Amino acid sequence: MSGAMLLSQHLTELAAATLQETLGLDERPDPLLRAANPQHGDYQLNAAMALGKKLGRKPRDIAEEAAVGLRALDAVASAEVAGPGFINLRLRPSWVGQQLSAALAAENLGIDPVATKETIVVDFSSPNTAKSMHIGHIRSTIIGAAIVELLRAAGHEVIGDNHLGDWGTQFGLLIMGLREWGDDEALERDGVEELERLYTQAAAKKKDDEAFADAARQALAELQGGDPEKRALWERFMAITREAFDAVYDRLGVTFDEWLGESAYQDRLDGVVGLLLEKGLAKEDQGAIGVFFQELEGDIPKKMRKEGYAPFLIRKKDGAFNYATTDVATILYRQERWDADRSVYVVDTRQGQHFEQLFTVAKLMGIDMRLDHVGFGKILGDDGKPLRTRDGGVPKLMPFLDEAEERARVRIEELREEGRLRIEDADLDEAFKTIGIGAVKYADLRQNRMTDYRFEPDKLVELSGNSGPYIQYQYARIRSIFAKGGQNFEGFTAPIALDHEREQELARHLVKYPDVVHTAAETYQPHLICEHLYEVASAFSSFYGDCPVLGSPEEKSRLALCALSARQLEHGLSLLGIGVLEKM
RNA sequence: GCACCCGUAGCUCAGCUGGAUAGAGCGUCGGACUUCGAAUCCGCAGGUCGUAGGUUCGAAUCCUACCGGGUGUGCCA
Questions:
Q1: What's the CA A583/C1' B28 distance, rounded, in angstroms?
Q2: CA atom of A381 to C1′ atom of B10, Å
Q3: Domain A119-165+259-379 belongs in CATH node 3.40.50.620
Q4: Quick check: helix, strand or coil at residue A488?
Q5: For a pLDDT cut of 90, what percent of chain A falls above it?
Q6: In 3D, which of A418, A421, A546, A417 has the Cα closest to residue A476?
């Protein structure tokens, strides 16, 4: 396998060339390479059935002919025809061993960069300011951070942007709340908690106090008009909120390249509305301005053309702008500043319609940028309903993380007393954090992001089975072999020979890692990484049980297999934002 | 009303560019620590893939209808 080439691509090309040659075709057929059920082989080719129909020949005959050519390949140990015309391929262990040795020696573990590098802005986390982060923010934050790392690992230039909701109508209410009940001492002490109280009180009062509501609207208008006093208040709100956010991000180990909230685009909104009017895409209706898809030409999904389909409003009748306006301005900004090829929005699936509209508008404007909405489902409680606290509120993020670490702590202390863990006293705090937070992240990332999932409090920190700590544990076991053997883990390389069945099983998984990383990046699916890591960890554990490493005749080769396993586990976990411990 | 998503083992979930006997974890039951770490490993049991049709050599996967659950839907984000 040469240079920048994925295993799947390599095999596909080899197989395509072989099929073309042995069957004497004019064009290269798609060999329909699929990972096979292990009892049948490593891969299977399903092209014979399709070609049979096309060529008017028996699929099995075609398969038999192709198999002869495939058997001649270096990479292939066997090619057997089965069923209606499946070709089962087994890779040659010596060939796989060579691939693995090369990956172990490579800087990038064999993950070569994509052929066409893109500049991609990933919009994630994006909480509203003046509110503390709640459980609903964790998915965008964790999934978004993982997607940033995945795209980087695939070779792209990535800008992680925290698109804060820092310019909404909440500020009019907050300013009024502060005026009515403001308490500097409380604000100093409780920070964002106090802001929330003020907001809640103000929102309640607004409902049956028309004068108060007007005053809030007035305050908002003044803020947006650039009034210095209001601006200073806003900045104070921002500083308080930012402090609370930083604490959460620090806890989660998440960082951003940019913090361009909605406020960053305010002076562009007028221009956006003007531009859309000028292009004839937007029009005024009932005092508001918006894009009415029914009346436009161009590439517009059918459903948007139906009567009653909601318009994309960019200016309210009171003259204020919508978040839709900001989102258009943001796209234009990303084009100007970075010449971005792609923008990715890691936002709740419930906003799917908004993004469909936004993307359609961008296309109508002639903006040449790939735009993807990476949606995700809700976290449900064990009653199948969205997580709520006893008083009906949405649970806050910080206490949730506290609880995760606390559960990890309890379990770790138990296991230490039983003498099963080897964490030094000095490393305990770090271990609680790495294991506790790792468990939370893994539990979230291992599911297909699109579906809602049920979070059972008792499984908050899953420590066995397919879990973060399980993978961390297998990593620590490997490190422990190196420590015991007095071998240098960093930089260890050696040729890999695959003789034992368990070695081959482990190798089968290891060799797929570059493919998995690229697929996960392309499809924005971190759970594919989890799946792979679990398979590697699990295959390693079986290998560990059956194959002695230190002192065996195969010691060097097995150490190399161990080293590559550990590197993949560490690398994969780091893509997910999860750390490892050398000892645990 | 219109649009979108989801119904897979007791529970939580993979699998859905159609491919062979539908896979994991948890839980149950039974084995394995004088041998590199038992948060581990090995094994048993557990399924009308919501229902009914259709397309296909082949459907959990694609199409249609229906049942059940969720979400969005003109001036919140």
A1: 33
A2: 19
A3: yes
A4: coil
A5: 67
A6: A421
Residue A464 Cβ < 7 Å to strand B: yes
Compute, in degrees rounded to 10, the torsion defined by CA atoms A101, A105, A106, A110.
20
Lowest mean pLDDT: which of A278-292, A300-314, A317-331, A416-430? Answer: A416-430
A351 touches strand B (CB under 7 A): yes
A311 beta carbon to strand B: under 7 Å: yes
Q: Under a CB-based contact definition with an 8 Å cutoff, are residues A396 and A387 in contact?
A: no
pTM here is 0.95
Q: How many other C-beta atoms can be found within 10 angstroms of the C-beta atom of residue A53? A: 10
A469-A472-A473 Cα angle (round to 5): 85
Q: What number of other Cβ atoms are within 10 A of residue A414's Cβ?
A: 11
CA–C1' distance A59–B44 (Å)? 40
Confidence of residue A202 (pLDDT cuts 50, 70, 90): confident
For tokens 């104070």, name the residue: A236
- What class is the A397-448+460-575 domain? mainly alpha
Tokens of residue A458, six digits: 């008792």
Residue type, A447: Q
Residue A484 CB lies within 7 Å of the nucleic strand B: yes
> Residue A548 corresponds to which tokens in the numbers above?
């002695």
User: Residue A87 is encoded by which pair of tokens?
Assistant: 């070709």
Q: DSSP code of A173?
A: H
Nucleic strand B near CB of residue A88 (< 7 Å): yes
Predicted confidence at residue A391, as pLDDT, reads 73
Looking at the C1' of nucleotide B12, which residue has the nearest alpha carbon? A454
- Write down the pLDDT at residue A26: 85
Residue A364 has which token pair?
Answer: 């109508």
Domain A7-91 fold is: Gyrase A; domain 2 (3.30.1360)
Query: Which band of pLDDT confidence, cut at 50, 70 and 90, is reported for residue A2?
Result: very low
List pLDDT tens digits, range A214-234.
888 888 888 888 899 999 999
Structure tokens at A207: 């409902």
Q: How buried is residue A248: exposed, middle or buried, by Cβ count under 10 Å (0-12/13-18/19+)?
A: buried
Annotated domain spans of chain A: 7-91, 119-165+259-379, 170-243, 397-448+460-575
The whole-number Å distance from A583's CA to B41's C1' is 20
Comparing CA positions, the residue from A420, A549, A418, A436 lying closest to residue A484 is: A549
- What three-state secondary structure class fits A350? helix
In this structure, is the dihedral angle defined by the CA atoms of residues A389, A393, A394 and A400, taken in order, positive or negative? negative
Residues 218-247 of A with CB under 7 A from strand B: none
Provide the pairing of β-strand A157-161 with A119-123.
parallel
Q: In the predicted model, what is the mean pLDDT of residues A128-132?
A: 87
